[in-house]
Write a structure and sequence with these properties.
heterodimer; A: mainly alpha; MetI-like fold; two-stranded antiparallel ribbon; 11 helices; about 0% strand; globular; B: alpha/beta; D-Maltodextrin-Binding Protein, domain 2; 2 domains; 9-stranded mixed β-sheet; 3-stranded mixed β-sheet; elongated
Chain lengths: ~300, ~325
Amino acid sequence: MLPAGIRWPDISFRWLALLAAVTIGVLIALVGWELYQGSRMAIGQFGPRFLVSSTWNPVTDQYGAWPFIYGTLVSSAIALIIAVPLGVATALYLTELAPMRIRQPVIMVVEMLAAVPSVIFGLWGIFVLIPWLRDHLFVWLKTTLGFLPLFQGPIYGVSMLAGGIVVAIMILPIITSVSREILRSVPNLQREAAYALGATHWEVMRIAVLSYAKRGLFGASVLGLGRALGETMAVTMVIGNRPEVSASLFAPGYTLASVIANEFTEATTDLYLSSLFELGLVLLAVTILVNVIAQLMLRSLAGSGTGKIN
Amino acid sequence: MKKLLIAACIGLFASVASAQMLINGAGATFPQPIYTKWFDQYSKIDTSVRFNYQGIGSGGGQKQILAETVDFGASDGPMSDENISKAPRTLWHIPTVAGAVVVSYNLPGNPALKLDGPTLANIYLGKVTKWNDAAIASQNSGVNLPDQDIVVVHRSDGSGTSYIFTDYLSNVSSDWKAKVGKNTSVNWPAGLGGKGNAGVTGQIKQSPGAIGYVELAYAKQNSLPYADMKNSSGVYITPSIDSVVEALATATIPEDFRFSMVNAPGEKAYPIAGATWILVYQQQKDATKGKKLVEFLKWAYVDGEKMAASLDYAPLPASVQERVLKRIAQITY
């Protein structure tokens, strides 16, 4: 009877783990189904035009998602462009360069950043960051890089760029923390081998550490991207909330998550509500799509073969 | 503080012990402060009943009363004919209080400003873009208006405040009516969106040359400057409780109480104001609950209305109050 007794926990754990894994899949499917059910009216009314139309007019019941999709993608892209180099550099400093005694305090500060609620970032954005951006950084960008369409037009302060910067600050902790764990998991053997070949400190980091860890670092960025796409509260407070597609990053924009949070409570007509549901569905689809693309890129990255393990 | 905590604990126990009747309501956030006060005061008068009010927004309030998941709904805008037709039985609008929406700004020294409706509409349409535009300057002789761009700020979240504001602009400008219209959120032709009264205020305070609209109560509590508005009699009126009561008294109020009070004809009436409503079924399903609800509403109109001004809401004038009380008496259970 002993073998059966030993196997029993084994089997039950196996099923429990399977159940947990399946639940996540079912949950996503249910959310998707519920969103689809809610948005059927809008889908029937507008069809695929919903995705490319730029009109969002609750008075005439005309709805289109394009400015929101654009705003979500652009603000997340800005956030990644700022946060990934910063986050990876911080992680690199913490694992490779920083003196032991300052590592822990810096790690604590980074993790504290993750604990600050989103609405606090938003308020700080309105009252501290925006005035500074408007009077200094944006003015400087306009005078030095004003020949680019990205940095033209009137400066209000609240803008796509401000939204991206706030999101960047918010996803910085997760990118830093995950990157640090990944860099720490790089075997010392790698570093020692590189040193043995006569590499400088910088070369060791570049050849032995970073290229060994790049898949993991890419994964950390994707995690950050996931947060950036769904960030609502802080973004809506600094992005300007105008459903318009503009080449300039100084112009106000709008994101999918923000418009849902803003308008859901007061939406009175069925079509209006249904269109907001469809925005939710679009957001879910955009998130999944971005993740799939990231996975594909990850695969090609692995295939590019720098001869590294994993 | 400690005493308060103890009182709260006792209150909690008492409510559990005596198994009070719970009346559920949901909807608009604008009147939430006064409703909360009413419920609190009323629970001292009639200890057998307790109210639970969820400020989930007017859209949610309308949905929930239509689905009969609450005993009463609340909305900042009257329901559309389309939505009313979905009600299983006769659904009544009962106006409770009114509020003003004020136009605030950020100019050097924040001088007192005067504005008329068409100019305000043109600013929000993006046609008047400078503070020293002749349309503004001609109404404000003696005020030094800067050669500065106007930064237009509006609410980004759907709200009753936006409804009142766009209702007013539609009323005074045919251009606005044709191009934009009125709703809890609209397709704004110009400007930046701020979330909530706080978001709009933040953006006004942070952007030199900004103009925006907020509730009167909010502007007062945060000492924002606000403009005198020209009413339909051609007089510039400072927003206040009195000038809103005046607007209520002179607005045309139809039998079903679904009225708009913007640009009311009274000489002392402030033009950008709106009422808020409680939504109840004429035929109550639950007899005891219905009876309690009617008793509460009667109390609210006689005693509750007196608390309105202290919370910066305009109470209903006597003439309207009388009509509303008659309507409440017709609720059956």
